[in-house]
Specification:
It is a single chain. This protein has 493 residues and is α+β, with helices and mostly antiparallel strands. The protein folds into 3 domains: 5-169, Beta-Lactamase (2-Layer Sandwich); 230-316, Helix Hairpins (Orthogonal Bundle), CATH 1.10.287; 324-473, Heat Shock Protein 90. 52% of the residues lie in helices and 16% in strands. The chain is built from 11 helices and 12 strands. The strands form 3 sheets. The chain has a 5-stranded antiparallel β-sheet, with helices on both faces. The protein has a 5-stranded mixed β-sheet with strand order 7-9-10-12-11. Pfam families: HAMP, HATPase_c, HisKA. It catalyses: ATP + protein L-histidine = ADP + protein N-phospho-L-histidine. It comes from Anaerofilum hominis.
């Protein structure tokens, strides 16, 4: 059975209210009974004390005189009428001499037990809730005390009683009022609880509906956000998660599309040339030429596969970084010397090449791959007769070394700069078509630099130049010295 939060909240609130009201009622009844009993006993004791004080001024020597004395009947009747209680007077042995009750509630044929009389004698007064030795047929509040004459001699006992049924009536009134009040309170609380639980549950229902829609494939589904409480924070968190998942899905779709495109183009070329050779469309004297093209396309597929494997290793954390302190100019120099022939063939001028030992704390292989990709990218997009500038600067205060590679050419439009490090973002969108690129080199550079605790970014003046910069942590500082790769001069042509 599906149990909603609002239902559980309402049941919990109702249970707490009923439990609290029940406990409050029991406590109220306990104190009411105690208060009523104490009040009744105190009132009765006050009345019998008053009679006792009046009798202390009367000259009577024994019970017979008390029985015949007109003062006794008069005094008892006046007090009984005034207080609404039953009064009776006994002799020293508990025999009832006079009783104010005319309803028959008091069994005058029975005597008060000696145990009660002894208690009244020893304590000076007596009080109980009961039948008073069988004198009453049901429970009464009773109080009594000895009667003392003007000679300070005990001549009997006086008792006053009040029917305990009045307590029942009192409690019934209290209980009725309590039940009505509790019912009204429960009704009001239930209405408020329903309203509040709905206000609490409705945002959760909307978040649930958005999550279900999102799970069913509607990646645009979002939860409405209202307020600044925990539920609103949950909605914001859900929306942030949905945005990221939508971006990941879009990236995945773009990734799959780009992969399909990158694979389809060389494979179509390869298939076309191979089929042409097989069916005789391509003459024998041209086969070597087209086999060379097929070899280039296979190489392109191989590079793409290697790049994809590199990205997978980087994003899954399989790429192990072995950072050491070494001279970054060694890597820069080795890459430039390896590409020297391209500089010469395209009359590209190299400036800024002035290697002074610059220690960084990084993985040499990782830095080599980054620099190779950036230099290769610069060579692709530098026009014949253009310039590539290399600079390595150190910021000891902030603890990093900055490597910058600038090349002249078309540059990168401002709206394209934020995307140049994304997967499959190819230069043809901003810097002219270049068929050899897969759009993964700069993305790999970004992943590698991030793994090295550095930062990489691009700057450009459209139509003039483009600069790629990245930082690496400084190595242990050592006295500067000329690198063994230094050749002097501005560079090679």
């Amino acid at each position: 059975m599906n149990k909603s939060i609002s239902g559980r909240y309402f049941r919990t609130t109702a249970l707490l209210l009923v439990s609290g009201i029940t406990l409050l009622g029991l406590i109220l009844m306990y104190f009411c009974v105690g208060y009523f009993r104490t009040e009744s006993e105190n009132t009765l004791l006050t009345n019998v004390r008053s009679l006792r004080d009046n009798f202390s001024t009367v000259s009577m020597e024994d019970a017979e005189q008390m029985k015949e004395h007109p003062y006794v009947e008069q005094a008892v009747r006046v007090v009984a009428n005034a207080t609404g209680s039953i009064f009776f007077v006994t002799d020293n042995y508990g025999k009832i001499l006079y009783c104010s009750d005319s309803s028959g509630a008091v069994d005058t044929s029975r005597a008060v037990s000696s145990k009660i009389l002894n208690r009244a004698f020893s304590d000076g007064e007596y009080a109980e809730l009961g039948e008073l030795s069988g004198i009453y047929s049901h429970s009464y509040y009773t109080a009594g005390c000895p009667l003392i004459n003007d000679s300070s001699r005990i001549i009997g006992y006086v008792f006053a009683s009040r029917d305990a049924a009045s307590l029942t009536s009192f409690l019934e009134s209290i209980f009725s009022a309590f039940i009505i009040s509790a019912g009204v309170m429960l009704l009001v609380s239930s209405i408020l609880s329903i309203v509040l639980t709905n206000r609490l549950a409705n945002p959760l229902r909307r978040i649930t509906a958005a999550a279900q829609a999102f799970g069913n494939g509607d990646l645009s589904a979002r939860a409405p956000v209202g307020g600044d409480d925990e539920v609103a924070q949950l909605a914001v968190t859900f929306n942030d998660m949905a945005d990221k998942l939508e971006a990941v899905d879009a990236s995945r779709q773009s990734f799959m599309g780009n992969i399909a495109h990158e694979l389809r183009t060389p494979m179509t070329t390869i298939k076309g040339f191979v089929d042409g050779m097989l069916d005789g469309t391509i003459p024998d004297d041209r086969r070597d030429h087209y086999l060379q093209i097929v070899s280039q396309e296979v190489g392109r597929l191989t590079r793409l596969t290697h790049s994809m494997l590199d990205i997978t290793k980087l994003e899954t954390g399989e790429y192990v970084v072995s950072a050491v302190d070494y001279d970054v100019w060694e890597t820069v120099s080795s890459i430039l010397f390896a590409r020297e022939q391209q500089f010469i063939e395209h009359a590209i001028r190299l400036t800024g090449f002035n290697p002074v030992k610059m220690l960084v704390h990084a993985d040499p292989d990782l830095v080599h791959q980054v620099l190779y990709n950036i230099v290769d990218n610069a060579l692709k997009f530098t026009p014949d007769g253009g310039t590539i500038d290399i600079s390595v600067t150190e910021n000891l205060k902030q603890g990093f070394v900055t490597v910058a590679i600038r090349n002249t050419g078309e540059g990168i439009p401002a709206d394209a700069l934020p995307y140049v490090f994304e997967r499959f973002y190819k230069a043809d969108k901003s810097r002219g078509l270049h068929a050899e690129g897969s759009g993964l080199g700069l993305h790999i550079c970004k992943q590698l630099i991030n793994r090295s605790d550095g930062r990489i970014w691009a700057e450009s003046t459209p139509g003039q130049d483009a600069t790629f910069l990245f930082t690496l942590p400084c190595g242990n500082p050592k006295p500067p010295e000329r690198s063994k790769y230094a050749r002097g001069g501005q560079g090679a042509k």
